[in-house]
UniProtKB/TrEMBL annotation, chain A:
<dbReference type="InterPro" id="IPR033749">
    <property type="entry name" value="Polyprenyl_synt_CS"/>
</dbReference>
<keyword id="KW-0808">Transferase</keyword>
<dbReference type="InterPro" id="IPR014119">
    <property type="entry name" value="GerC3_HepT"/>
</dbReference>
<dbReference type="Pfam" id="PF00348">
    <property type="entry name" value="polyprenyl_synt"/>
</dbReference>
<keyword id="KW-0460">Magnesium</keyword>
<protein>
    <recommendedName>
        <fullName>Heptaprenyl diphosphate synthase component 2</fullName>
        <ecNumber>2.5.1.30</ecNumber>
    </recommendedName>
</protein>
<comment type="function">
    <text>Supplies heptaprenyl diphosphate, the precursor for the side chain of the isoprenoid quinone menaquinone-7 (MQ-7).</text>
</comment>
<dbReference type="GO" id="GO:0046872">
    <property type="term" value="F:metal ion binding"/>
</dbReference>
<dbReference type="GO" id="GO:0000010">
    <property type="term" value="F:heptaprenyl diphosphate synthase activity"/>
</dbReference>
UniProtKB/TrEMBL annotation, chain B:
<dbReference type="GO" id="GO:0009234">
    <property type="term" value="P:menaquinone biosynthetic process"/>
</dbReference>
<dbReference type="Pfam" id="PF07307">
    <property type="entry name" value="HEPPP_synt_1"/>
</dbReference>
<dbReference type="InterPro" id="IPR009920">
    <property type="entry name" value="HEPPP_synth_su1"/>
</dbReference>
<protein>
    <submittedName>
        <fullName>Heptaprenyl diphosphate synthase</fullName>
    </submittedName>
</protein>
Amino acid sequence: MEKMKLTLLYSDLKSDIDIIEKELETALNSSSHLINDASLHLLQAGGKRIRPVFVLMSAKFGQYNIDQIKNIAVPLELIHMASLVHDDVIDDSDLRRGRHTVKAQWNNRVAMYTGDFIFARALEYVTSIDNVKVHQILAKTMVEICNGEVIQIEDKFRNNQNLKDYFRRIKRKTALLIESSCELGAVVGGLDVKNVRRLKRFGYFVGMSYQIVDDILDFTATDKELGKPAGSDLLQGNITLPILLLKDHPTILRFVEKASKGSVSESDRMEMLKVVRNSDAIKKAIALSNQYLRKALKEVDALPNHPMKKKLRDVALFIGKRKF
Amino acid sequence: MDATYIQQSIEQLKTNIFMHVRHRTLIQHTGSPVLDENQLFYLLLPFLNGEKWDEQIFESAITVGIVHASLNEHDKISEKNATSKEQQLTVLSGDYYSGRYYEILAHSGNISLIRQLSEGIVSRCEHQIKQYEASQYTINEWYQVISVIQTELIKRFYQVYEYEQYGSFMHTGLLLLQLQKELQLHQSGTTSNLFAKMQDSVLGEEGSIELIIQKEIDSLKSLLNENIRTSTILKDDLKLYIQHQVALNEKVTRER
């Protein structure tokens, strides 16, 4: 339902999104039956495709040519997909979007090779662009995302972290790839430096809001909506914003302690969810997300007049207000 | 040029690879990148033989080593359980090294090598994953899998810099050395997944898997020796080094 609403928001881009979807299928085509099966499994799981959408929307402010723009939109989605496949190994996740993960359906090694295959396909695809700057931005993003994940593992179950640690982490984990999607769309679209920078900042602010909302939904949405048990982040030791805002709560402290030993029961999880849902931490986290959204909208205002301005605003607002 | 010089060149390349992927947390938890000296030797073979070699080519060789290191990290991931911090960070080591090779080549604008290496990785993954497919493969197809895993990225490097004349030495040498290694591991009681697959592929055939692989090793050895004997491009020191590499590997195998 939510995905449908989002699709409606960028209905103007539908034909181009369809091209991207087709290209994703082509890019994932392999001589290996197993990689084909795993990739098809990933494609069928769907996804909001927000990274390609941001690439296309940003490029619209310049010289828009889908045959060129797709060469950066497709790799960005592939990089996102590949990192999810590897993340599921790291998090030992069996479910994503209600479907079995590659590592659960097959095994960790299959997930590693499938992820490596997709990463490589992304780079193979992007080499049709000979603008070195594009490669430098994308490469830096990939390295930084990895650094963010290393920090996330280092920070697991660490109680003495602060908001700065959290924002630094989500910047690399999520905001960077959305920031780069907007920046790269703008660069490939040939925008001037000022507007490239505006769209880059827009992507960063939207990305931060997106991750905060994601972290809120992990507690407020139902297991069914999430396609995995609510509170999974904390179960895995990831101290996200709602928890940081009430981390001295005895129930939460107890839960983190138990989770670090792998001894959480279903009633512990329910009790933790009740505490988080009934606290003001959710409200405070939403307020922080909205601050980022406001900053994102300010960047949109500064962009040259174009029908895409409204779309950018609408998609940003949707992302910041989505229910799951 | 003697064996010491060759060894020093390999060590220097190794040091450079380590320097380019240095990451405090990753080293602390997962150790230094794993590199195969035989592969590094073949990466350097054109240089050691006096071919045109500049800073850009040396940097390219470093990135090929980094890609090997990246994929080697992912080979360390357990099939069933990768929940320990060390395993989690090993996944990320591989991804980090992969990002670094791209970053280095993007910085110098070497897009043609990025393309070649990504195509090489695609092919390597497609072959590596065959171990987990339900399909049955013949022993020769498994040799092909090992060959692609060992040689594909170096082959791509040779293509970009027009060193293809070294391809047959590299191809035969690395396949031979890896088969010796696989056999040696099996005889010492640690059978790799790939070896087990080779074993399955000859079930019901005459002769044990050890004999079949030994026969292939002998045949590759004859081929390599013949290539070396008739080669007009390889320096004598390098011919000796390659033969010594194989003999040394064999000696280790026999001693076990």
